[in-house]
Amino acid sequence: MAVIKANAYGHGLLRVAEVLEEAEGFALLDVRDAIALREAGFRQTILLLEGFFTADELPLLAQYELSSVIHSTWQLAMLDAYPRRGTLSVWLKINTGMNRLGFLPEQVPAVMEKLKSHPAIREVTLMTHFSHADEPEGVAEQLELFKGLTAAYRAPRSLANSAALLRYPATHAEWVRPGIMLYGASPFADASAQQLGLQPVMTLGSEIIAVRELQAGDSVGYAGLFRADRAMRIGIVACGYADGYPRHAPTGTPVLVNGRRTRTLGRVSMDMLCVDLGEMPDADVGSRVILWGAGLPVEEVAGAAGTISYELMCALTARVPVSY
After folding, report:
1. Count of beta carbons in the 10 Å neighbourhood of residue 271
2. Active-site residue 183, yes or no?
């Protein structure tokens, strides 16, 4: 099941679904996005990862054959008031330690029995979500709890996100839910995408629109956060936080100019950022700049900026032109 929430992690919902047309299912959040997939002709299982939010959405789930996560008692109450019989496919979310959504272990037997006998429910899948699959703690405790809670039931299961899929084969079950790995980024802090055999899908590029010569003591950008300690050339790049590049990226965040690695300088502005051209005498106005992607892993940029690759890709704004 390909996770394509958040506009396919910033990559474009329908375009990514087309590329992943052989996936057996898609998972996302917004019922409108799910309907858009159906209306575009996708017949796979489509799962709403946070389920329905209002009773008005239940007829849409039936009409468009959408599966829904059930994670709370208020959703059960809405189901009880739903008049149609045998029309809904639900995924029972069990809280095994993430402590966000899901029924507590002691609630599972009663909820499962209710769903199995509910007149509106056609089928039930069991699921959980790991909190430490990408950390040294791993998944053992949550996995054992889930296995114990679900052993008595004959139902499909879904546990593995990208990190668990890559490192813990015992979690794979009937459904796996790859997300970040589909887009060529690593879910791990200790393993790069290249080490995992993943290739970047998104490349954020721009170009130099001005070149300036600094003297020792000259500062760069708002608040003068970078001050030159010698004469140097810098390039002004047409990209800033209004495009989704992180404002908090510090001096030294890696960037490619004409395929060569250099660094950002000073504070990122709304529409521009500055890069060091000191070792690049051939760089000039029009030179190609890669902010992340081909040749520069997004997780490396994210690490320098104190965030994660997920946030960078999801934060791209609508004004960024996209070429597929």
Report:
1. 15
2. no
